């Protein structure tokens, strides 16, 4: 850590008093069952049709799963792992663990077998739930490496190789053991769970090394739900489309607990590939998403406009300009004049209404987290009548620290601290936070815990930012700051985000730490680039040949440097390196939440990177 709280700058902010007393997720579960009795609490697709689960049935299935787990010998405090995509069974198993006092360990379904083995060993999980034969097959590879694992339960039937029984079997056993006395005992024992009891161990994505198990208590998450409920206006008439992985703290708190606590119907998307189709079918009113989703939607809208006739292009850019004017006036607290108002209605009918239709036509609010959202994309959605409430947090903070709200909304910031959360800025710009949202620590890693939580319980986020009239603005990751050989500090994220705004760019990573100058690794959007190349009558047989063409390199230079003219000379990348393949989770360059692992990228392309500096004497 870089500073004690006595050395901190005076800049600070508090989200106000905490809403309510400490509580548990078990309490949240039973409160929702009492408060809501909706016939459609959850939705999922099976056999090509959307089906629903009522609150009453959901509560019964959770209870039966508890009794079934107890029959398997699972006791309070035991670790139960979840390796599954988003589906109702995930929610059922999660609340079963929470209400019986077990500690669940969510695992990203995209992880390879060896990474899963590490988490199972480190957490000492006794039972593992898997979603499918694909996930069960991973366990076949590693079963001998995880001696603590006693039972593997499959959500799917028939039971795949690698699993010992199905969730249906577990629920049936629990249903058979159910009596009036057992129900009363279950509810009494659930009420005895304490706010400080460990609820879950969530393993971090590991952008800078081996994953660490983040220990979150019941009250860590409960407090975050309560505070977030005062910031995001949602209710029983809302429907959410859940597609971000529940293994991640953002979707788990905001897309799962927050929605359930407020009576929102949650529909589980089939997959990312079918998201647009599910938008049209479910027509959600609120949902959580990461910036990459907004970037893809924006890129598709821009692509459609540019692929049209000359008049269609002019209409699009005219509408965008009108929207920008209206947004600037509205965000400043004023009302557009009559003439501009008429133009806005025309722009909405010709352009923006189509964007709203693309996401179902009923969306009131998006909530964005997990990575920085480019302000220009946020503003474009705002002009289309789609408000994106950008927030900020980490797994270690349950996760929300701050969020924009409809009443306190400032594009380019991540909002004000939520109630009960304190934020301070250290002299070196690092963001510190303190409150009921801060984790208990890293599992089995007291030294790592001591590195990020000081004696006064301030958590050091590793992010750089500043406070502006109470709004928090993130400028970069502390560990991502590039310090050139000349001693210049460069924040790469804003530069990378600007470059990714081009429809010809999929990924961009800046390199330059301890180097003479920065360079930029760029993964082109080959769908767009190849379409352009055909129009230009270029000849190539594979991506390597396409990227080697002088015409192609000139095009990509124009796209990249064209959006970076505002940079200081020392910030401007001197060279652009075009990569043939996109980064992926499978190759280890992306975390499961799609964050780039800079160290992995730097190492994998080391020879290519070194070559950029070898013949340059600047």
Structure explained in plain terms:
It is a single chain. This protein has 618 residues and is of the alpha/beta class. 40% of the residues lie in helices and 20% in strands. It contains 21 helices and 27 strands. The radius of gyration is 25 Å and the shape is globular. The model is unreliable at 2-10 (pLDDT under 50).
Descriptive labels:
disordered N terminus, 618 residues, alpha/beta, five-stranded antiparallel beta sheet, 21 helices
- Helix count equals 21
Radius of gyration: 25 Å
Total count of strands: 27
List low-pLDDT spans: 2-10
The end-to-end span amounts to 35 Å
Which strands sit side by side, in order, in the main sheet?
A: 1-18-19-21-22
Q: How helix-rich are the residues, as a percent range?
A: 25-40%
Short description:
By secondary structure, the protein is of the alpha/beta class.
SSE layout:
Layout: E1 12-14, H1 25-35, E2 42-46, E3 49-53, H2 55-71, E4 79-83, H3 88-100, E5 103-107, H4 113-123, E6 127-130, H5 133-142, E7 151-154, E8 165-166, H6 167-176, H7 180-191, E9 198-203, E10 213-217, H8 218-229, E11 239-242, H9 249-261, E12 265-268, H10 275-282, E13 286-289, H11 291-306, H12 310-331, H13 338-358, E14 365-368, H14 375-383, E15 387-393, E16 400-403, E17 416-417, E18 422-425, E19 430-434, E20 441-442, H15 446-452, E21 459-468, E22 471-477, E23 482-483, E24 489-490, H16 492-499, E25 505-511, E26 519-524, H17 526-535, H18 543-548, H19 550-562, E27 575-578, H20 598-604, H21 606-614
Parallel strand pairs: 2-12, 4-5, 4-6, 6-7, 7-8, 11-12, 13-14, 14-15, 26-27
Antiparallel strand pairs: 1-18, 2-3, 9-10, 10-20, 15-16, 16-17, 18-19, 19-21, 21-22, 23-24, 25-26
